[in-house]
Prior knowledge:
By secondary structure, the chain is mainly α. It folds into two domains: about 25-70; about 75-300, MetI-like fold (Orthogonal Bundle). Helices cover about 80% and strands about 0% of the residues. The protein has twelve helices and no strands. The chain has helices at about 15-70, 75-80, 85-115, 120-135, 135-150, 155-160, 170-195, 195-205, 210-240, 240-245, 260-270, 270-300.
Amino acid sequence: MREPRPQDGRQPGAGLLREAMSADHADSRPISGSTRARGLGHRSRSIALAAACVPLLGFLLLPLLVLVLRVSPARLLANLTTPQVAQAITLSLTTTAITLLLTVLAGTPVAYVLARRRFRGRVVLDTLVDLPMVLPPSVAGIALLVAFGRLGLIGRYLDGVGVSIAFTQVAVVLAQTFVAAPFYIKSAAAGIAAVDRELEQAAALDGAGPGQVFGRVTVPLAGGAMFGGAVMTWARALGEFGATIIFAGNFPGRTQTMPLAIYLGFELDFDVALTLAAILLAISFAVLFVVKGILGRDVGREV
């Protein structure tokens, strides 16, 4: 049987539908106002947070900006041709290249052990690797001197056969390696630890030896972290001062690296100090920019 229509001609339930729509519209108005209030509150917090960051960021930026503006391009190019600056740059690039090579060759096995082995005393080894990163450089220089100096524990025997390490370019390399090697070891260890062991096991099942697995599977997958650590090691070695001046001395043309030349230039020729400081600032910024770009790219690939 057909249901009777209402006498006003409206469809059944039309009133209920209009009431529901009216209720939804009424409910939407306070929600919109609440959303607007939350947006204003979020914007206010963002402005307050940015204002809180300004003092420290300004403190970090201002001295660097003044340093860059203090050195004119003409003066920079003129000072680059002076013998003192040229010798310091050449010596720094040579010794840091040797330091980087030694660090990669000797530090990669240590990084692999820290990443893949669990043994008694591992915490002690890990702490030993971290120690030069927090140790005052002057303490590192004294420690190297009493170990490898002419009267040191090992240096006295080397001196007996005519081998002298202290106050030579070898001492520069050893000081740089001591303070900078942990940066590569820690970064490489983190990269190796992140490599999926199943990929290495699959390569081993296919007949690859341990060296082939490491060279063809582990290193390519951990290459970003290893390269980043190597660049940071080189940059830290380039800026090394305290351990070098104590263990190797500050002899122009022989052991005077760029940071030591800045120290001497501060007393004798401030223009030279400004030039070398600007060069080191530019190198440091470029190194950090490259490392962060490489690590950020690797993270993006993983995601």
